Amino acid sequence: MKSMKRLGSVILIVLLLVVSVGEHVPVHAIATKQASSQAKVTITKKKTTITAGKSYTFRAKTEGTTETITWSVSNKKIGTITKAGKFSAKRAGKVTITAKAGTASAKVKVTVKGKQIIAIDPGHQSKGNNEKEAIGPGAKTTKAKVASGTSGVSSKVPEYKLTLEVSLKLKEELLDRGYEVVLTRDTNDVNISNKERALFANESGADICIRIHADGSTNASVTGASALYPSTKNPYVSKLSKASKKLANSVIKSYCKKTGAKNRGIVARDDLTGTNWSTIPVIVLEMGFMSNAKEDKRMQTDSYQKKIVEGICNGIDSYYK
Q: What is the pLDDT averaged over residues 21-35?
């Protein structure tokens, strides 16, 4: 009987200990969980649209936590953010900015807009199209929809490949400089007429259009770069002449300075379909002569193409200053 009483007492004591411990741990855990669930971060100062090249300081506050707020951005190529919440927009795109304190966080989606939209038209395509189209609005004169272009006398590379290769690199550099970019084509296997390219650029919201080409001549000794623009007497786009001439001057000067190419200057041309259908300032950049062996080889190299791209971008930057 005594042994039974002792066993009962032991069981009672164990049960009391279990209950005591069982009550103590969950209470602490619950309190911690409640504190964590009550922690809150609120972004109190924010913008959802920022222009590339600009900066903006976001602000946030916390509730229910003493943790310090840390800031992060989903894509550092588009923009960066400091510990103090200062966001620097670098290139066009969309990012998510997060303010975090402990396990609590708040987010805001931000669109970075380009400084301007630049249309790039890589000249020609893998197959020319000899069907005819009017060279300008209401024109009776017609030309082939798109010519096949020239090719390298030494490299044998067709112009359409060179222009696209340069244009794709140009796009990336312009994006890095805070512009938005539209390309009339991003592959060689297309069939897009010069009129259609101009209309695409017009409708894209672009501010200017740069048409990328390379030159050819029956005289193999001829070298150098030039920029073509519509004249004040152009029957279709005379109103674009002043701005286009300014753009041509800016680009060709910067281009030749960076590449070392001979500057053949700017040339007024009113017979170009891709120019005459434009509603925005437009130029044709003739990067160099593929009919000259030395210039042809140079234009195929990555190092020279880098200079080409930087020269064009410098010219566009200068145009907007």
A: 49
